[in-house]
Every structure is written in C-alpha cells, then in structure tokens.
Amino acid sequence: MFRVLPRGRRRCEGPRVRRALALGLPTVWGAFAITYKLACPLATQDSMGARIVSSAVFFAVGTGLVLHVRRALLRELRQIREVAGAAQNVLLRPLPPRIEGLALAAGRLSASRGASVGGDLYEVAATDHGVRVIMGDVRGHGLPALATVAAVLGSFREAAHDETELPQVLGRLERALARHLRERSRAEHPSGGGTVPDSPLAEEFVTVLLLEIGPDGDISALNCGHPWPHLLSGHARPLTDADPLPPLGPFPLPADLGVLDCGRLLPGEALVLHTDGMEDARNAAGAFFPLQAALTEAARIQPVSPQLLIRAIYGRLLRHAGRLPADDAALLVLRNDRTRVPCQQSEPGRHARSLG
Predict the structure, then answer these.
(1) pLDDT along the chain (356 residues), means of 10
(2) End-to-end distance of the chain based on CA atoms, in angstroms?
(3) Which of 84, 111, 142 is where one domain is finished?
(4) Residue 2 lies in a domain
(5) How far are the Cα atoms of 183, 322, 327 from residue 294, in angstroms, in the given order?
(6) What is the rounded distance in angstroms from the CA atom of residue 322 to the CA atom of residue 327?
C-alpha cells in the first residue's frame, strides 16, 4: 500500500538516500571488480585476449569511480557557492530602483570564476539627514573579507539613521571595524586553537567612501582611501580632486574630520561610485581600463539609465581585459530624478534649470 510520509520525514529521507547512493555505488563497483578477479576464469588467464578484457573491466570500474567522485565534488562545490552567494546577498541586499527621487542600480563582478564572495560593499539609505551612501572595499577575499563586510555594513545601517553628521557615522564605522578585528584576533590566536590566517590582522584595512545627498542635491563626502566617484553631466569627470584620508584600520581617524562639500547633483545628472578593481583592470599589453572614457561614452545616451550604464561598462571592461579582472569590481550608479533644485547665487543659470 502506498503511504505518504510526513513532510518532516520526507526531508530526512532525501539526505539519507543521497548518502546511501554515495557509499553504495563505489561499493558495488568495487565488489564487481573483486568478483571478476576471483571468480571469472578470464582473470586468471595469461592470453592477450584475457588481458585485454581484464584491463577493460578494471578501466571501466576505475572510470566509474573517478566520475562518481568528480560528480560528488562538483555537487559539494555548487552547494558551497550557493551558500556563499546567499550569505553575500543577505549582506549586499538588492537596492530598490528608486530612493527619495534618486534612480539606483548596482553591480559587482567577482575576480574568481564562479565565486560570489568578495570584499566590495555598498549601501544606500534614505534617512532624516538625507540620502546616505557607502561604497567600500575590504582587503582580501573569501570568508574573512565577508565577515569584515558584515561588520562595516551592519554599523553603517544603524549609524546612517542615528547620527546627524557624517563624521559621527565614520567614527561608528571605525569603532565597529576595530571591535571586529579584536574579536578575530582572539579567534585566530594559537592559544584559542586558531590557524594561521591568510593575511595578518596588522595588514587589514577597509577603504570607505561616505556620501550624503541632501534634498536640494548638495553632496557632502568623507573619503578614507577610496576612489572618488565620477559625475556624469554630458561627460564624466571626477567629483573632486581632494586628497582622501587613509583607509580605516591601519591609522586612527583625525580628531577633527572636515566634511568635504562637493557641489550639487542636478536633475538628470548621475554619480558613478566604483571600487579600484574597475580602474586596475589591465589588458594583455598591461594598459589600464579607461574608466572615465568609458563612462563618457556611455553617458552620451540621455537620459542616463543606471542599469544600462552598468551593463555597458562591465561589457567594455571584459572586452578590454579579455578575462575576469584580477580584483573584484563593483559599480553603483545614482541618477537625480528630482524635477527641481534650488538655484545657487554663484551659478544661477546652471542650477535654476528643471527637468520634466
């Protein structure tokens, strides 16, 4: 009689069947090879035909075992990638298409084929203090980098809403990173049974770019060792040429953090934030990827579509390098879709325009 198993029991039966197959098939093949060797008359004969048959049997058994092991390893690798990808997707949550009148799109390209875990991070938050944006890059790859990404992003998501000023947000990020590195140091200490890490904690750092975009389009920034974004306004140009602060980690932040005024993001204009993997990508001749020129070319189609711009830049990057880049590469595009920005007395003509 057919019997329906309870749902919980069906979940348990699946892994048991897979484990039984994983152990049973090699056992059957091994038993077949032993039985042939001991019981088949051909296995004891010295003629050329008998040797050929015996060789074919053992070759088939060996090939079956190799394919079985390969299939099991590929399945395990696929499961690991799925878990890693799910973990990173929880951290780098998909951005909404619009936040407070800004159109958004983000993308990331891993340096390892098939890998999902990297050290790039980004987030956009609509707060009472304006739209706040973070773009960062953790040194290294893999699970240690993912843990650092979690510490920095978790701190930003709280501080962006709690703190009224950008320097206070950056201070919270610095304290969260220091706390995370202390905890990792204790976990990796030999007395705690830890193994030798791939990269010493003394060499760990995070580059961080913080932006705040006010209701009138004013852009304020704090930069700790990260590439400056590009402003798309007919052509691409760096938002500013100011010297950034050192990355978070190796050195303490200055006591007096001055927020940089970067002008205004006008209606229709876009900001492109990126990690250094974009500009560091090289082709076979050793030439760096011309990011600014690629952005200028992509921005010729107006209005700039954040999604299409990201696809165009990644396509050109892969054609330039001819392979995956040596470092992870992330892009974040914000386009101002607000219809009006108050004019500034210094530039009344430019800032008084409106779209739509």
Answers:
(1) 47 53 61 64 65 68 72 67 57 86 90 62 95 91 78 95 96 94 76 52 84 96 96 92 92 90 95 93 92 92 90 94 82 90 44 34
(2) 70
(3) 84
(4) no
(5) 42, 16, 19
(6) 14
